[in-house]
Design brief:
101 residues; mainly alpha; 5 helices; 0% strand
Length: 101
């Protein structure tokens, strides 16, 4: 399973499990947020590591930039640029806010 698939699986699990969601979101306030995030993922059987997530974020961002020919009026808004960790948490918060309404 690649990093994208593991992040997707973790996202689905966190949307369904409030305790897991809370733990993942709370990593933002720790001394080493990404390290703590990966530790939680590993506890539940998803072998996510810091450098894998960083590389995935950078590669995804680069692919997005290439697909939009470097920007322009039709470019999507790139909120967190190459930060897959922050993008994951942002999407998790958004998914859960829709669930509560």
């Amino acid at each position: 399973m690649d990093v994208a698939e593991m992040l997707e699986q973790l996202h689905r699990m966190a949307v369904r499990n409030g305790a897991l969601r809370k733990r993942l979101l709370s990593t933002r306030g720790t001394a080493s947020p990404l390290k703590e995030f990966c530790r939680i993922a590993q506890e539940i059987g998803l072998p996510l590591y810091e450098m894998d997530i960083i590389e995935f974020g950078e590669a995804s961002y680069a692919a997005m930039k290439r697909s939009t020919n470097g920007g322009g009026e039709n470019s999507p808004q790139l909120c967190y640029e190459d930060d897959a960790y922050e993008l994951f948490l942002s999407e998790l918060e958004e998914a859960c806010s829709y669930e509560q309404t």
